[in-house]
Amino acid sequence: MVGRIPGPICFMTDEGIDEGTLSRTRMPTPETSGTHTLTPVKSKRQLTDTEKKLVADVKNALQEGLAPIIPIKSGAYWVTWVENNAKNSRKMSELNTAFKANAEAFIKALEDAGATVKIRNTKRSAKSAYLFHWSWKIALGKCKASDAEKMAGVDIEWDHGDDEKSKSAALEMVTGFGLAVPPQSTDAPSLTSNHIAGKAIDMDITWTGTIKVKKKDNTEVSVIYMANVNANTVLHTIGASYNVIKRTTDAPHWSVNGG
């Protein structure tokens, strides 16, 4: 990925890029017809390793006839970007075959007992997982924007040069993505989520009062509704009988192993 390079840099020339120094230059005048010689001013300094890499990236992009990629700052733009480039799914059909069968059986048992199940998310792209993870951590102050790692194909600039602006932009993303935050979820969305492999499902399960839900072995269990699903261990036990395991720090999340 090519980013912004501090200060003007010598690359607008047919002869190539000066990859060792950073210097201001003047463009050719009409008197230099037939050549593209650039004359550096007096001040020069050695490039850092990061700057050298950026220069090399610019050079490669120009040689391949490509426009250098300039990262786009974090914010609401990336919510739309995910919809167009890394869309997630709510479809059961997108799940891993074995986990899909287990999740469908668990959901059927819940609905047969009178519960309402709203599916939020099944399959998730790795790019979405990346954006979910870092936006959540930055927005909630779990890390600085400058700590965020980069991901190929996701040209985002998390650091706005100001901590509050960076946090505010990340929060726009958290809100737009509909991510669960404390107290519903105390964990950042995982970079290696089971959702990526289709082995997890996020769902809201609601009902009124007490219902009787069948476990996989057909025994009925009475379950009292609790607003805090993370604390409803009876419901967790029923899910586990179908090999659908509750993550107790993330309200909507169930998966093949609780991760």
Description:
With 259 residues, the chain is α+β, with helices and mostly antiparallel strands. Among the domains are: 1-70, no CATH class; 92-123 and 194-255, no CATH class. The protein is built from six helices and twelve strands. The chain has helices at 49-63, 77-85, 97-112, 126-139, 163-177, 233-241; strands at 21-22, 25-26, 39-40, 45-46, 72-73, 116-121, 156-157, 200-206, 210-214, 220-224, 245-246, 253-255. The strands form five sheets. A four-stranded antiparallel β-sheet has the order 6-8-12-11. The protein has a two-stranded antiparallel ribbon with strand order 1-4. The protein has a two-stranded antiparallel ribbon with strand order 2-3. A hairpin with a 6-residue loop joins β11 and β12. α4 (126-139) packs across α5 (163-177). It is elongated, with a radius of gyration of 26 Å. The chain starts with 20 loop residues before the first strand and ends with a strand. Mean pLDDT is 84; it is low at 1-43.
SSE layout:
Elements: E1 21-22, E2 25-26, E3 39-40, E4 45-46, H1 49-63, E5 72-73, H2 77-85, H3 97-112, E6 116-121, H4 126-139, E7 156-157, H5 163-177, E8 200-206, E9 210-214, E10 220-224, H6 233-241, E11 245-246, E12 253-255
Parallel strand pairs: 5-7
Antiparallel strand pairs: 1-4, 2-3, 6-8, 8-12, 9-10, 11-12
Helix pairs in contact: 4-5
